Each structure stands twice: as structure tokens, then as C-alpha cells.
Amino acid sequence: MILGKSVVLTTAQKELIRGVKGMLGTTLRTVPSPSEPAIVLATFVELQKENAGLTPPQELRKDSFWLTHAKLRGADCVVITSPSDRGVIYGVFALLRKISLGEDVHNLDEVQQPYAPLRWVNQWDNLDGHIERGYAGPSIFFENGHVRADLQRAHDYARILASIGINGCAVNNVNANPKLLTDEFLPELARIAGVFRPWGLQLALSIDLSSPKSVGDRDTFDPLDARVGEWWKQKADQIYRLIPDFAGFVMKADSEGRPGPASYGRTPADAANVIARAVKPHGGVVFYRAFVYDHHLDWRNLKNDRARAAYDIFHPLDGKFDENVLIQIKYGPIDFQVREPASPLFGGLSRTNEAIELQITQEYTGQQRHLCFLAPLWKDILDFDMHATDGSTPVKHLVAGHVFDRPTGGFVGVANVGMDTNWMRHPLALANLYAFGRLAWNPNLTPGQIVDEWTRQTFGDDPAVVQIVDRMQLTSWRTYEDYTGPLGVGTLTNILGPHYGPGPESSENNGWGQWHRADHQGVGMDRTVATGTGFLGQYSAAVQKLYENVADCPDDLLLFFHHVAYTHVLHSGKTVIQSMYDSHYAGAEAAEQNVTQWEQLRGKIDDERYLEVLGRLRYQAGHAIVWRDVICDWLLGLTGIPDAEGRVGQHPDRIEAEDMQQQGYTQVDITPAYFASGGKAISCSAAQPCSASFHFKGNSGTYDLDVQYFDLKTGVARFSVLVNSLPVDEWQANDDLPSAKPDGDTSTRRTIPAVALRSGDEITIRGTPDGGDPAMLDYVAIHKAQESGH
Ligand code: GCW
Q1: Counting atoms of ligand 1 from 1, which one is nearest the CA of 414?
Q2: What angle separates helix 152-163 from helix 186-196, to the nearest 10 degrees?
Q3: Is the CB of 397 within 6 Å of ligand 1?
Q4: pLDDT score recorded for residue 789
Q5: What's the per-residue H, E or C state across 95-150?
């Protein structure tokens, strides 16, 4: 039964009926008035009309809800109530979550308040349907320069977001196309707002500061020019006429080539405020991104440091932003790396609203091909005490506005879901979206609690499933860090390209960033006050003290803050170089173990998801070895310091393709050499299939064969493997990895399990090129078959 009238309450009711039917098989009836025990959905005002004596145990703020039980019109009722109708939806989802987790829902009396008022996702969708740093297919909002005709997926997305308490969604890329604000386009956006509305989700837009000039009729976009202010005001009024519940704007300016206030010698506060004033009468807000830095810094100057930029620019402006502006701050000072310290800017604004920006889409953390559950990373940042005042001031308090009693504050997650049925590409990656919503609602939850909720709701209660999935998720961040970028070195990915595979030299010697400064003697960025870039001086004294001295700095962030010799001994007792070798091996090993762990779940979850995840975990385990070998070979080449365990550069179980008997294939040098085992591969440029053969020299037995090849995006090459001319496997190199070259992005492993081999057998790999993909082969590794079988 509903008390109150709105489309949101009706949605809440439908969702409750659907959820109860789906989980318990019971069909609830809707009634105008309870004559028997009922579930009542009510705004608090309406509830009090029925029973004025009902008082919640805590004050109910906007979006919060109270789950309770009461006598209404003589019947015993379960009550879900909130000051806002949106809060009732959140309450319904909370009740459904409890049911699905098997919690006792009798005699409920619980108030839940969201931690921060603004909990948004950003989508980096372009109007042509492509999503910047999106890994799960095209946009659910845009196609061919327009809003999609069919917005079913946008509606479903709104439902997902409502289920985790998200109340705003900016639908377009922060590298914003000004066309969105044109008179022609706004009605199209109103259609998206229309499918969001029943879920209490508000539409927001990313905007380009130059709009008054680029799509408007002004000859300037100077934020201090009154005609520009007038343009924004008229634009805002027009938007609110079409979309009365419009949430506000997100702005990226003076960053990575975007226009900004600097063009007119104005400040970010000038830019933010002119727009904030336009939306203010309508209750709108402006999220101004602190991701502003110079990507043309002179890398030869060791004092230059991109990490300083946000604080250097925004701290002096503290107090200059209007009350409906929030500064949207990425969690770390660089850019969503696998490990960074909390941005000093969180502690640097006391008279300005803040929001934290987290990245759900795994741009630098494996792009949803690798498993990397980010809640533990986010949680470390949210709990980190900035010592912004004498008391404890963790980041979560600061961004929610609690420390300095700010009017608002927020959590923003860059989600980038796409048209893929499972939204994120990797079936286990949806846990990151879930975790973002849960932490934005309540950052005091632990990653363990969150993942456990997610696993049970996703795969059911089988203890083996829950245990294995939870463990894999909770260890996945460390595993990914171990084989990509340990000790705070930042990721060693190709930062100039797709940010995916290893590319350790790309981040140095250019203006985009100063990262690891690795040379023959040492590695790491000296960001100390004493001898470095002075970045550490942006933190409070207490935080500075944690990191300023090499001797105290925690190992996990050592190379972020210090440049040290490879022989420097860590708290762990290992040298830097040996620790790096070891963690790359440990990480690759852990990725392999995930495959065997997952295999224990065969038959315990549906085959479709079982096989999909298995394929992804196998791929990850193979690519973790690529990462391991590229980074370890690069370090060995740079330092000349051998691995004390004798592993790096030693691969006795490999047969290099260039050493095989070749037909049609030609040998090619790979540059840099560390992208291929032995620095070489073979390539088939013939029109015919090519082949490469060798004789197995080991003892007779059962072996797993790993075939390492390059899967270029420029075509779909085919491979087959034959033992004594009998085929044992064939496959297509049809992944859409983000490179057209043989490199750390495209190097791929195919494992052929349990092949019976006798000494002397001839093994042949046949490659059939296609288009621009010359079926390149790197090596074959042969090892004793794993016990579990595949
Ligand atoms: O990490 C970088 C990404 C860009 C992104 C930018 C930003 C939308 O590589 O793709 O642009 O951050 O956050 O603005």
C-alpha cells in the first residue's frame, strides 16, 4: 500500500512486488487500505497523517529512510518511510537486500542516512556512442550524434543506480561536446531525464566552458563578462523548463587541452561561480573538477611534478567558490593509479565544498579484463586521516562536508557502463559499481562486508562460492598491484596509449607526467620537502611526517615519495629490486591460482557465467606473466642486478618461436625487446598459412602447452596446434585488444591443457594471417599438467 502519490512511489511499489515475487515466490497484492498485515510505503508527511504518534529514532534527512513496523488503520504493518519519495525507493531496496541476504526482517526499526548528500556517477560517453575509457561496449545513451531512440538500457541503469542509492548521473564525457547545450539537443536529453525520473535519479551534464561562444551567440566565454553570465543564466532557465529536476553540471576546464578560464586570465572560481549562479535559483549544483594540470611540463627539471597541480591551483582559491559549487577531487594527486596517497587537496579546502572522484571503470587497473576489486583501495583513501584540524579528519568526513560543516559534499564514481549485457565486460567487475554505491551511502562498511553482500546477491549462498569469490575479489587489488606496479611506483603501463599493458618507459621523458624516474642507479620520484619537488609540503605536518623520511615511509608508497637505490633495503627486509622481482612473480602466481580456485566452482553457478569468468581469469593469468616478464626484463636490463631466485630472464621451459623450424614465417625483432621473449617473434606475411615446428625433448607424460602469440586488433588471425600432424587445438585471435602492434597490450597466452607427449614428438603451430594480423608467434612453454585439469 502506498501513502502519497508520485511516480517514484509507484516505482518503489512495483519494485517491491517484483523483488518479493522473485525471491520468495509470493505475489503481493496492492490495496488502498490495509485490512490485514501489509507493507506500507509512505512519505513521512503522509505517514504522520495516518498516525501522528510515529516518531523515528533519529532525525530523517533527505534521502534517508526508516524501516519500521506500526499499527495502521488497525492492521500490523511493515513501514518504509522517508522525507522524500526517493528515500522510499532506497528503503525498498534496503528491505529487499535484507531478504536476499537472509536477514531477519521481522520487528525492524532502523533508520539509514546517506553519508553525503550528493552521490553521483559520471559517464564519459560521447555523442557518437563511443565511451572514453569505457570497456563494455557502446553508450547506453548516445548513438550517431543523438540520444538513442530506445532508452530501455538507460532505464535499467537508473534502476541499478537507485538500488545502491545513487541520486545523480552525468551522462556525457567530461571532455564535453558543447553541442549538448544547443536548443535542438536539449529536448533529446530531456528524454533521458524522463527515464531516470521514476527511479529518483537526476540527470546532470558535463559542460564545456567555451559554450557561450562555441554554440552560443557570444564572441567570448570570459566568465567575468556580464554577457557570458547572462548566456549561462538563460541556458540554465531553458534546461530547467525542460528538465525541472535537473541536477547540475560537471566541468573539466584548463585540463588536457580543454578550454578554461585561463584563456582570459580568470580563475577556476570565476568559471565555476558564473555557472553556479545560473543554476542556483533552480537548486542546481556545479562540480568543478580539480584535475587541472599542465601536460607540457619540462620533464628534465627534477622539481617539476604534476602531482602538485591540484593543490597549487585550488588551495589559494579556498573560500572563493559559491555555496553550490563542489570541487571534484580524484582520490590521488596523479590519476587513478593502482596506488597513490590521498590527494592533499582533501585537507586543503576548509571553506569550499568537496567531492571525491573514484574510478569504477578500470582504466589503469586492467580494463575489466583483469579482476581488480577496488573497494579496498577506496576504503584506504576514505579512511585516511588528513589531520586537517586537531581532531581526526578522514577523507570521508571531509568530502561529506562534516569536518567544516559545509552545506554539501559528495561522492562521484566514473562508471562508464556500456551496452554489454553484463554492463562492465567482466562479470565480476560489477562488484566495483556496487561497492561505489555502498561506500557513498556508508563509507564505514568494510570491503569484506560489501563484497560478501554482492557475491550472495549475485551468485547465491553456496558457502564454497561465497568463500572463493569473496577471497578472489578481496585479494585482487594487491595481486594486480604486485604484477603491475608495486612499492608505489605507480602503474608501469603505457601512459601515452591505452593505459593497459606494460609500457614502463612511456611515462618518462615527456610532459604528461613525472612518474618513476628509473635510471641505472635508482628509482622513484623524490617528492620530499627536503630534497624533492616539495609536494609533501602540501599535507599537514602530521601527514608529512609519515612520508618525508625514507626510513619511516611505508613500503607501499616508498617510490611515490622517494628516489632510492635499487639496493635500498625496505621495511620488509628485501632490497627494492628483489622486492620488485618477487612481487611480480607472486602476483602472476596469484593470478594463476585464481583460475584453479574458480575451477572448483564448476556446476555451482550457471555455466554461462562460470565459463565467461573462467575465460577472463585464464586470459588474466597469461597477461600477468606478460606484465611480469616485461617489467622484470626491463629492470634487469636497467640495473644489471640479477634476480636472487634465478628466475628473471631464465625460461628453460620455453621454446622460442625464432628457434623453431619455420615454413613461411619470418623472424622479426620486437622493440623494445622486452615485449617478446628473447626480443624476437615470427610473423607470417605470406598469403598462405605459415607454420613453425619443434621436437619435444622431455620425458613422456601429460603436459600443459602455453602458446604465446600476439593478437593484433587489425584482423582475426587463426592458429592451430598439431602433435605429430594430429590437431590438438585451434582458435581465433579475435580479441579486440587495444593495439595494432606486437607489444605488452597484445601479447596473449593460449593454454592447451593435458596434452599427452612422448619424447621426440613433433609439435607444430600453424598460423593463418588475416588482414593486418600476421599471426605472430613468440614462444611455446611446456610444463607438467596441473593436477586439477582444466
Ligand atoms: O585519466 C585521464 C584519462 C582521460 C580522462 C581524464 C580525465 C576524460 O586518461 O581519458 O578524460 O583522465 O579524468 O579528465
Answers
A1: 13
A2: 50
A3: no
A4: 43
A5: HHHHHHCCCCCCCCCEEECCCCCEEEEECCECCCCCECCCCCCCCCCEECCEECCC
User: Given pLDDT bands bounded at 50, 70 and 90, which one contains residue 354?
Assistant: very high
388 vs 409: CA distance, rounded Å: 16
Q: Give the residue-averaged pLDDT of 130-142.
A: 98
Taking residue 280's Cβ as centre, other Cβ atoms within 10 Å add up to: 19
d(CA 357, CA 330): 4
What is the pLDDT, as a whole number, of residue 107? Answer: 87
According to DSSP, residue 390 is labeled: S
Tell me which of 254, 335, 357, 745 is the catalytic residue. 335
Q: Which residues contact 278 (CB under 8 A, 6 or more apart)?
A: 229, 232, 233, 235, 236, 237
Mind listing the pLDDT tens digit for each residue in 79-94? 999 999 999 999 999 9
Q: Is the CB of 335 under 6 A from ligand 1?
A: yes
Burial-class residue 183 by CB neighbours within 10 Å (0-12, 13-18, 19+).
exposed
- CB 254 within 8 Å of CB 292: yes
Instruction: Give the phi and the psi of residue 125 in degrees, each rounded to 5.
Output: -90, 135
Question: 3-state class of 725 per DSSP?
Answer: coil
Reference 162, options 197, 116, 191; nearest CA is 197
Q: Quote the CA–CA distance of 15 and 235 in Å, as a whole number.
A: 36
- Secondary structure of the chain: what % helix, strand, coil (to 5)? 35, 20, 45
E-assigned strand segments in 494-586:
522-523, 564-565
The helix (run of H) or strand (run of E) holding residue 148 is none
pLDDT for the residue 37: 87
Provide the residue type at 35 as one letter: S
Over the stretch 637-668, which tens digit does the pLDDT of each residue have?
999 999 999 999 999 999 999 999 999 999 99
Q: Which atom of ligand 1 is nearest to the CA of 132?
A: 10
How many angstroms separate the alpha carbon of residue 701 from the centre of ligand 1? 51
Adjacent-strand bridge partners of 721:
729, 765
Which residue in 572, 577, 568, 613 sits closest to 595, CA to CA?
613
pTM over 0.90: yes
Residue 335 annotated in active site:
yes
pLDDT given for residue 790 in this prediction: 43
Q: Which three cell numbers stand for residue 600?
A: 572448483
pLDDT tens digits, 664-682: 999 999 999 999 999 999 9
> Average pLDDT of the chain?
96
Residues in the chain: 790
* Of the candidates 710, 707, 709, the residue with the CA atom closest to the CA atom of residue 722: 707
| Residue 434 Cβ contacting ligand 1 at under 6 Å | no
Q: What is the pLDDT of residues 484-534, one digit of tens each?
A: 999 999 888 988 889 999 999 988 888 877 789 999 999 999 999 999 999
